[in-house]
Design brief:
By secondary structure, the protein is α/β, with parallel strands linked by helices. The chain has 2 domains: about 50 residues, no CATH class; about 100 residues, Ribosomal Protein L4, Chain: A, CATH 3.40.1370.10. About 35% of the residues lie in helices and about 10% in strands. About 25% of the residues are buried.
Length: about 190
């Protein structure tokens, strides 16, 4: 497998504030915000007035689901929160190009000719990876290479994604990034 020169493709100046903003926005968009409690309107029951307004000597009550009642709702109930932040397409593309360019400058980005394994075996995948002498890596390959995905999914510190699966977080998470030459044009199109 011969290496390909990437200096012509990824040569953008690193913009730290842009990369930080896009990375934090991306991670924020992954949050589910599922914390929730029921307030008095969400608790079931309590439709009938529990006792007459007057005559019992007790406090007025219109429902049995008020916060001071047993089985009642929570006073200041938490509701699911949406943490999504909008990322402009141009900003996202520029940030991705900045990350790829910085990886290239630090000699952590590699492009190889046709990374493939003939059968879905981890041993075959490790043999291919050991030829490159690279560890702790993100591998970007064509989604049609099922054997590569199956063979490498059980390895620690190795993640295999298609060009659509790459994002700022997993690009920065690994020490090295390997791009299969078959998807280089697609990656270039998604970052410029």
């Amino acid at each position: 497998m011969a290496a390909i020169d990437l200096n012509k493709i990824f040569s953008k100046e690193f913009n730290e504030s842009l990369v930080h903003q896009v990375a934090t926005d991306y991670m924020s968009n992954q949050r589910s915000g599922t914390k929730a409690q029921k307030n008095r309107s969400a608790v079931s029951g309590g439709g009938a007035k529990p006792r007459p307004q007057k005559g019992s000597g007790r406090a007025r009550a219109g429902t049995t689901r008020g916060p001071i009642w047993r089985k009642g709702g929570v006073t200041f109930a938490a509701s699911p929160k949406d943490y999504n932040k909008k990322i402009n397409k141009k900003m996202y593309k520029n940030a991705m190009n900045c990350i790829f360019s910085e990886l290239n400058r630090k000699e952590r980005l590699f492009c190889v000719e046709d990374f493939n394994v003939t059968e879905p075996k981890t041993r075959a995948f490790v043999a291919e990876l050991s030829k490159l002498k690279i560890t702790n890596t993100l591998l970007i390959v064509h989604e049609g290479k099922i054997n590569v995905f199956l063979a490498g999914r059980n390895l620690k510190n190795v993640e295999i994604v298609s060009p659509l699966g790459m994002n700022p977080y997993n690009l920065m998470r690994y020490d090295n990034v390997i791009i299969d030459s078959a998807v280089l044009d697609k990656v270039q199109g998604m970052t410029s």
